Amino acid sequence: MIKASVIGATGYAGQELVRLLMRHPEVELLSLGSRSYQGQAYSDVYNNFRDLSDLVCQAGDIEILADQSDVIFLAMPHGIASKMVTQAVLEKAVVIDLGADYRLHDIDVYSEWYQTEHGSVDLLSQAVYGLCELHREQIKTARLIANPGCYTTCSILSLAPLIHEGLIDENSIIIDAKSGVSGAGRSTSQDLLFGEVNESIKAYKIGDHRHTPEIEQELRALNQKNFNVLFTPHLVPMNRGILAVSYATLKPAITEAQIKEAYEKMYQDEYFIRLTGDKMPETRWARGTNFVDIGFKLNKRTNRVVVVGAIDNLIKGAAGQAIQNMNIVFGCEEKIGIDLIADFPI
Questions:
Q1: What is the distance between the alpha carbons of residues 139 and 74, in angstroms, rounded to a whole number?
Q2: Is the separation of the CB atoms in 321 and 182 below 8 Å?
Q3: Pair 320, 307 in one domain
Q4: 154 catalytic residue (yes or no)
Q5: Same domain, 111 and 167
Q6: pTM assigned to the model
Q7: What is the pLDDT of residues 272-328, one digit of tens each?
Q8: Choosing from 57, 150, 154, 332, which is the catalytic residue?
């Protein structure tokens, strides 16, 4: 059995981790860390665990947990994990960070976009970006895994085949993405009150959302070119889900058959990526699952391709992908514990 601990267990992503890990046949869940709810029964924080878990929230000392655990999941806001993780911890346990502290390879880029001091710059070089479909071989031997962001997972996987095969003008990429309110975390904010988000949709952080450099880093790695993308996120009045609609100008004489072939070539063996053909993805069919649904349309009139991607931001965009990473590291069947089918209607 894989002995697992979760620090930051009472956020939305943390709760999903706990829920999925409890059902994983090869995992023993040892400890749940939460300073805000220290000493409280986890089932009192989340009543869906009533009579199912007797775990109590603890302070979550990573050094103590490293002696007891095979893997430690960190589900906290940026700026915290980098001050907790040390080389000594990594020698004892695998760390999978759901935050942003180890996603960006360049510390200057991290400092610019996150406006905070990184607490363990020396560990950046050994951190592996945990987008499983692109970095599976590196993940297998990793001790420190940077779990990707939700917007980034959907955007990168939607565009990767086009860039890898050189079918588009990289500098023409526009990503128009929409997320449910759970993507903002379980915090008290006027902007997230029901009366503020219901019956409304809004764009936010236009041109300066922190997922932008993450998307650019991973897409640039596919063709070794330096280019920028225009990324605009939106908040929509639903609990969970991300729909990313990406636009790009095609290079001359590129056909629909070539685009289709590029996606099939890259993703033909990827269980968690579903190519939807003529039926465009919808968040309801990915909600509650670890799947990425991807479809595209070629607009001949403008010589552009429109790619639509859909995921559940809390599963493939957070907890499910973290467990997928764990499965790869520990040699489990990759889909075990996260082979879920969407509930419908819900």
A1: 17
A2: no
A3: no
A4: no
A5: no
A6: 0.96
A7: 999 999 899 999 999 999 999 999 999 999 999 999 999 999 999 999 999 999 999
A8: 150
